[in-house]
Amino acid sequence: MVREIKDENFPQTIEESSMPVIVDFWATWCGPCKMLAPVMEEIATELDGKAQFFKLNVDENPVASTQYRISSIPTIMVFKNGNVLETLVGFRPKEAIKSLIEKHI
Amino acid sequence: MRYDIAIIGTGPAGLSAAINSKIRNKNIILFGSKDFSSKLIKAPKVNNYLGFYDITGSELKAQFEKHINVMDIGITNERINNIYAMGDYFALMVNEKMYEANAIIVATGIEYTKPLKGEEEFLGKGVGYCATCDAPLYKGKVVTIIGYNRDAEEEANYVSELAEKLYYIPMYNGSYKLRGNIETVNDRPLEIQGDDRVNKLILKSSEINTDGIFVLKDSVAPSQLVPGLAMEGDHIKVDLDMKTNIKGCFAAGDCTGKPYQYMRAAGQGQVAALSAVAYLDSIE
């Protein structure tokens, strides 16, 4: 399942998890983001228990989107121990995203 | 409704893919233009298309047209903006409209606007292709739009409502319908520069300090059309079965490499269609 993440709980979520944390930066007005959402849900189901999946609405959460300098959406970031390990900008096919995440599991 | 195969392009590769898919009784949709291919209708003489010695491009086009008409293959005259590989199907976006297909064949030819120096390097780091998508991220910042067609003016007007300052660089001639707060720069862009983000656009006789640059083109590289599609230089990477790196996505014709010839394109279109048919049979 892909859960909502917000500015308030962003830092502790990416730091405290022992699993990779995947964050999908999105917004309601972004077409490719809408296409990516079901793809991320499928990946989250398939990798359940191996990684944590979140989505962050950039309109409502300016702190995190500014800190990570999001300049295009969708952007997918893979965090581990609070560090950014991967950044994917733009829509990607399911297999491409999944294999990128699996590298860090 | 979901099509079996969507074919993008109506040059020899796309048309050959269409007739072979149809022969195999697949439900297809063919995107392209009524002229089929601007290169084809411009060719003064063709002597290397087997069976048609001393034929002009437009005569060959007429033969192709007769062929697809007899086979009851229609052309959907719409421009695909993006194709998303959703996993077990493809979503083909035409502005607000969406088509779905289980397999796709990319046969878009080789004529697309070449990227600027720095464009690919800074993609997602200040360079974008969808101004309406990313404009809100540039609230209060300086944005530059390089527009290759009239549609870009509309996007520029929208972005100018959010950005602190908007520069518009038209890559075509004409009068521009732009809001008064937009600064038009009539100069040729050469290079996008920056550190870890875009900060500057170098033009032939000037420079613009900018936080973001949107490049709004007529036709984009296949890797922009199908996000995640692997390229090899300017061409789509394919194997001998015309398979790309994306499951269910095939490619044929000039977009896959040289030589740029009609018969090669038609042959590859046929192979791509048969591979797509085999793929569809395997997922049933």
UniProtKB/TrEMBL annotation, chain A:
Q: Which UniProt keywords apply?
A: Disulfide bond, Electron transport, Redox-active center, Transport
Q: Which Pfam families match?
A: Thioredoxin (PF00085)
Q: Give the UniProt record's GO annotations in the biological process aspect.
A: cell redox homeostasis
Stretches assigned to the Thioredoxin domain = 1-105
Identify a single GO molecular function assigned to this protein.
protein-disulfide reductase activity
Among InterPro entries, the record links this protein to: Thioredoxin (IPR005746), Thioredoxin_CS (IPR017937), Thioredoxin_domain (IPR013766)
- Top-rank taxon of the source lineage equals Bacteria
Indicate whether Transmembrane helix appears among the record's keywords: no
Give any Gene Ontology cellular component: cytosol
Q: Give the NCBIfam families listed for this entry.
A: thioredoxin
Which protein family is it in? Belongs to the thioredoxin family.
Name this polypeptide is given: Thioredoxin
- UniProt lists the gene as trxA
TrEMBL record, chain B:
Q: Domain named FAD/NAD(P)-binding: which ranges?
A: 3-269
**UniProtKB keywords:** Flavoprotein, Oxidoreductase
Name a Pfam family for this protein: Pyr_redox_2
Keyword Flavoprotein set for record? yes
Write out the GO MF terms.
oxidoreductase activity
Protein name in the entry: NAD(P)/FAD-dependent oxidoreductase
Cite the source lineage: Bacteria, Bacillati, Bacillota, Clostridia, Eubacteriales
